[in-house]
Amino acid sequence: MTPLHRRLALRLGLGALLAAFLAGLITLFIESERVDDTILSLATQEAAAYAKLSPGPQTQGKAEEVRRLLSDFLHDHQSNPQGHFMMAEVYDPDRQEVAQASESLPADVAHQVDTGAHRFPTGIDPWYRKIASGDKLYLQVLVPLLTEDGKPAGTLEGVYHIPQREVETITGRVTGTVVLVVLVALLTAAAVYPIIIGLHREQEALSQNLLSANLDILAVLGSAAAKRDSDTHAHNFRVTYYALRLAERVGLDAEDIGHLMKGSWLHDVGKIAISDSILLKPGKLDETEFAVMKTHVKHGLDIIGESKWLGDAAPVVGGHHEKWDGSGYPTGAKGDAIPLSARIFALADVFDALTSRRPYKEPMSIQAALDIMTQGRGSHFDPQLFDIFAASVAEDYEQIGGREDERAKFLLVKHARRYFFRA
């Protein structure tokens, strides 16, 4: 499994756990509501059983008969496996107490029973609140009593006890449902993972192909500019490789190195717009001609400005002729005002020009090139960057120095993958 796929698996796993947790909470809430409804239904059914026995507590004259029936009712239903009332009070339709009865209600439960502010039902729906005592569960309820023809006959208030076995059954059902929902969420994530990985691989392959096509275009543009200047495309690969290696040594971040590489490939792309009479002139350019030559920087910026993907090459394309002391062009930027990537590239560009064969000169040795460049330390070049470059470039020169074959391209592509083909 690749690091990327491990990250995807981790994210999907965390997402699945979060989804399972939320699903579990929602299920627990829903099931808890269902449990309340179930328990309340049991209490309501038992209250309805009493209503069938009762003559209807409409008058105080029936109080004794109601109390006796209520006491018998509590006693007769003690063996009900689903639960029973342990205390009950009957109110008439005017909410006046008619009778009450109880059977050994635990003291801590009796203490929690709220008899001070009754919430008498206004319709046929009962009111209730749960009371916990250790591992036992009770329900304080107020249930409307109705006559056989559906007319209000009063209200039964009571404390309904749910047997431990019933509580365990309900708890087991709720727990099983929650666990099942959590497992389904996790199994769904596990089933979806290979599908996501497959889709991601397809997307990654398309992205890689698109990026490869963009890099090919990048190389073609750079080579076209080099060809216009009677140079070879190998120069672009060499100078970009030198710049890349120096950028790595000074700790430039990966994104900026990618930008530097684009700019290095395209540093002279603006020369496409310079006429042959100036660009290919064998002798020294006069002042007017040199002024035209310097416009290749602006032309280069105009060209890359047409592409959003190439836009981040601008620091090198626009700044590779600037000098540390401010004597460069096109803006005369000085010192740290010159983009770091442009300062890095300037060293690589001059070094490769000195150590490579050109139509008008033979290649210099590495030491001869560095001796000449030392004269520009602090004037042409960033002095700190120059010192790092001079101390380390020999290693890179041994690999590609002055070579016109595919060696520089091979090494550059090998190193570039980590910056352009990042996950």
Q: Average pLDDT value? A: 81
The CATH H-level homologous superfamily of the largest domain: Hypothetical protein af1432
Kindly provide the radius of gyration, computed on alpha-carbon positions and rounded to a whole number of angstroms: 44 Å
User: What is the CATH topology descriptor of the largest domain?
Assistant: Hypothetical protein af1432
Low-confidence stretches: none
SSE pattern: HHEEHEEEHHHHHHHHHHH
Strand line-up across the major sheet: 2-1-5-4-3
Structural class: alpha+beta
Strand content: 5-15%
Please report the first level of CATH classification, the CATH class of the largest domain.
Mainly Alpha
Major beta-sheet overview = 5 strands, antiparallel
Number of strands: 5
Q: What is the count of structural domains?
A: 2
Q: Report the helical percentage.
A: 55-70%
Q: What would the principal axes of the Cα set say about the shape?
A: rod-shaped
Q: State the helix count.
A: 14
Walk me through the structure.
With 423 residues, this protein is α+β, with helices and mostly antiparallel strands. The protein is 59% helix and 10% strand. It contains 14 helices and five strands.
